[in-house]
Amino acid sequence: MSEENKDPEDKAEGAFDKAKEKAKKTAKEAKEKAKEFAEEAKESAEEAKEKAKEFAEEAKESASEFAEEAKKATNEFKENAKRTFSEENPDSGRNVAIISHLTIIGWIIALIMNSNNKTLLGSFYIRQTLGIYILGLIISWIPFVNFIGWIFVFILWLISLIGAFNISDKPVLLIGEFFQDWFKSL
After folding, report:
1. CA separation, residue 4 to residues 7, 12, 16, 78 (Å)
2. Contact between residue 117 and residue 91 where contact means Cβ atoms under 8 Å apart
3. Alpha carbons 184 and 121: distance in angstroms, whole number
4. Which tens digits make up the pLDDT trace of 47-60?
5. Residue 86: which of 124, 113, 110, 105 has the closest Cα?
6. CA–CA separation, 109 vs 100, rounded Å?
7. What is the 3-class SS of the chain, one letter each residue?
8. Which residue, 6, 120, 153, 167, could crosslink 136 as a Cys pair with Cβ 3.0–4.6 Å?
9. Are the CB atoms for 125 and 100 separated by under 8 Å?
10. pTM to 2 decimals?
């Protein structure tokens, strides 16, 4: 080969060697940066793991405290309900008696309350208000009488409500005894 051809070849080899060296250097730098990045990512992941662990412990503690408070509140409510609706408490039947006068829905609620803890006063007024409600329904079907009949039913209902407030088991006028007889299974 001639001298002229060797020189560009040498130049090309020199350039190739330089490029090779530069590529090795760049690869080495990239490898070091990747290693640094991996270490930083690992540290960040460990920090996140620790924070998640702390958060989980705090959440568990909060949930435990909430469960304890809920359990305590439930027990207090249970005790209050027992005292309110116990047979020794004269107001227990009174509450059922008064609630039974508050529409048909109130009567149903009173019936459920009384079925859990029967009291004589509560049962008495459940029977009496059921009779008054049925009487009102029947009277509403009778033409020409229904307005006066409704006044009569309202008066019976009012007398019954006053008796419930006074904790008195006195039947309403004329038909109260029949209600007690007819609905004695309640």
Report:
1. 6, 13, 19, 107
2. no
3. 13
4. 888 888 888 888 88
5. 113
6. 7
7. CCHHHHHHHHHHHHHHHHHHHHHHHHHHHHHHHHHHHHHHHHHHHHHHHHHHHHHHHHHHHHHHHHHHHHHHHHHHHHHHHHHHCCCCCHHHHHHHHHHHCCHHHHHHHHHHHHHHCCCHHHHHHHHHHHHHHHHHHHHHCCCCCHHHHHHHHHHHHHHHHHHHHCCCCCCCCCCHHHHHHHCCCC
8. 153
9. yes
10. 0.50
pLDDT band at 88, cuts 50/70/90?
A: low
- In this structure, the number of other CB atoms found within 10 A of the CB of residue 72 comes to 10
One-letter amino acid at 56 equals A
Per-residue pLDDT tens over the stretch 127-147: 899 888 888 888 888 888 888
Handedness of CA 101, 103, 106, 112 (dihedral sign): positive
Place of tokens 């004329």: 174
Residue 171's pLDDT band, with cuts at 50, 70 and 90, is: confident
Which tokens belong to 102? Answer: 């508050």
